[in-house]
Structures are given as structure tokens and as C-alpha cells.
Amino acid sequence: MCLRGGGVAAAVLVVVFGVGGCNGETLGSAGPEESASGAAGGGGGGGGPALAAVDSLAVKGRAPKTGYDRDRFGTAWADTDSNKCGTRDDILKRDLVDVRYRGGGCKVSAGKLDPDPYSGKDVTFTRGRSEVDIDHIVALSDAWQKGAKYWDDSKRIAFANDPLNLRAVDASTNRSKGDGDTATWLPPNKAYRCTYVANQVAVKKKYELWVTEAEKTAMKKVLSGCAGQKLPTGGNPTEAPARFHAS
Q1: Please, are residues 34 and 12 in contact by the beta-carbon 8 Å criterion?
Q2: Of 27, 16, 244, 58, the residue nearest 152 (C-alpha)
Q3: Mean pLDDT for the chain overall
Q4: What is the longest distance spanned by two Cα atoms in the chain?
Q5: pTM of the entire structure?
Q6: How far apart are CA 224 and CA 51, in angstroms?
Q7: Three-state secondary structure call for residue 45
Q8: How far does Cα 130 stand from its chain's mean position?
Q9: pLDDT of 29 strictly over 60
Q10: Are 112 and 170 in contact (CB under 8 A)?
Q11: Measured between alpha carbons, how far is residue 9 from residues 16, 77, 112, 191 in Å?
């Protein structure tokens, strides 16, 4: 197994675009690099690179949701990094501890969020139950209304499966989020908000999504209290392999 389990708050292996993953031939599914301050939720004032990056995001109004469908982002959890495992299992491997598998080293059967970043509590994962979700940090619907409507299939599929935009989290907490952005939803666990908002900024910058004025204001409000908060990096390229298609 090339992807480690580990606490979400721990520093995560960075994958640089074009660099091999598990076997030197695939891109792998490492998540964003997090600063020490980000992993702990930050503290103090002065912001950091993540705060500075907010000003690089275009500001526009939210476009209509017309035409949005999950299928426009391809089949859920496609193996876009070509490591023979679906994206969901890749993220479970990355974010859970005490991971167990069913039928080899790909399909995760059990593990634990220790702790869950959104709620701050420990959450047990058992396959077939609904205690753990894989959250799109920037929701697909939110992306659709802020630029993804105009993308081609390849970019939408890449976005939906990019580890930079994915996190294993407590299902009940996550479902209160809906397709909210920073202006409308933040994790109840205040210690994780610096990392969460920095991650949203990183994803929107990488994929050239815009933000609303209210969203930009909310991002700055959170990140202004996150001393030295870095902008997360990593994930997969912004185009999926040509073999993948969306409806």
C-alpha cells in the first residue's frame, strides 16, 4: 500500500503535478500540504500566504444552478490517477487510521477518523454504514455556479476526483453543509477552520473558480486570524485522462 492512513491534522504527503505516485507511473492521491499552524487551526493574527491568495480570486455573482447534475462531473469516484483503486478508497486510506481492507489493499472495510476534522470527535468507519462521507471541500454545485458550468468534461471529472478537494469527514456534520461556501458554512470545529478555508482558496485558485463578494469577505475574516497559514498544494492535474467521460 503506497497511501498511508493517518490523522487528518498530520502533514500529508505532497504530490507535485507530473510526479509519480505509488509506483512511479501514476499520479497518486496525496492531499494538500498543510502548515503546522493550519493543522492546528492557526492562531493569532497576521494571516499568511493563504490570506494573500484570496485577492487573486475573481469576484462575481453566483450564477444560476440551471443545468447542474452530479453526472456532469463523471462517474463518482473514478480512478483518474490510474492506481487501480477508486478515489473514495484512496481518500479513506489517506485520512483514516487503523485501516483494514477487504479483498486486498484497495477496498477499505474499516478504520477511524481520529479525530474528524469537521466535528473534532472520533468517528468509526465501517463499510456499508454512513458514519463517514468523502466531502468535496468546494462542493460540486458551488463550483458549477462559479465557473464549472463552462468547463469541458475532462476538467469537471478531474475536479470531482482531485484529492486536494476531498476529505473524509463525519457524515452527519458534513450533511449540514450542503453546497455551502465559506460565507454560508464553516466546520463546527473552530480549530480546523483555518485549514478548511485555506483549502477552499487553494482549490478555487487552482481551478480558476470565482467567489462572491460575501464569500471573499468571509474567507478574509477567517484567514486574518490564521498566523502564517500556508496555501495548500498538491493533488492531481486539472484534466482527467481521455478515457473518462461525463454525461
Answers
A1: yes
A2: 244
A3: 86
A4: 49
A5: 0.84
A6: 7
A7: coil
A8: 19
A9: no
A10: no
A11: 20, 23, 13, 10
